[in-house]
Amino acid sequence: MPKFLTKITAITQASPTVKIITFDTPLDFVPGQFVMLTVPGYLDKTGKGPKRAYSIASAPGEPLELVIKINPAPSLSSTIDALKIGDSAEVDGPFGKFVLREPVKQDTMFIAGGTGIAPLMSMIRHVTKQSAPPHMKLLFGIKTIKDCIYREELAKWEKKGILIVITCLSQEEVKGLHHGRVTSILPHHTPLTDVYICGSPQMAADTITVLRTLGVSLDRIFKEQW
Question: Residue 42 — φ and ψ, nearest 5°?
Fold first, then answer.
């Protein structure tokens, strides 16, 4: 799909540092892919209009939804932070080989670190639309409970028995939630089939190391890092 301009239709302050932005353009892509985003008129200190890669959180065919981590100014994300409903952004894509393998197997596991939840949300949303979605599990590693984006939507799928969500807080203790990193709880949840990982390079590397010690073969592990 060529570059296109799209307008913002919704903005949600998902956490103190993260916004979920929805655009008016549906996109045809494979769950897990990303787009390149820029803001018309925004120039960095070199005089160029920088682009930033953002994983798509929406399901294919739905209005484009992106999870934006807001960094201090001057930055593209701080410029995005100032945008309002009705403002436009330029999108190029989709791109990427971190994609959902179909048919999705029973007990597929998703492991997210922070805003790495975005492409996994796209995958989960896509799968939950199936007439008989397979059972899935999500290990979600965040710093504090305030960083738990998509909490209500994930809870909805838990109630329906489609998804088990295990939230891991690394910097806070909350009753009923695991305290520690996802790697510390992973040995108690050995994946039975495919595993999709998205997070920081260190998080992805550490998670794969633990998975390998649990006997998970590399051909069952798919990763993306930011």
Answer: -85, 125
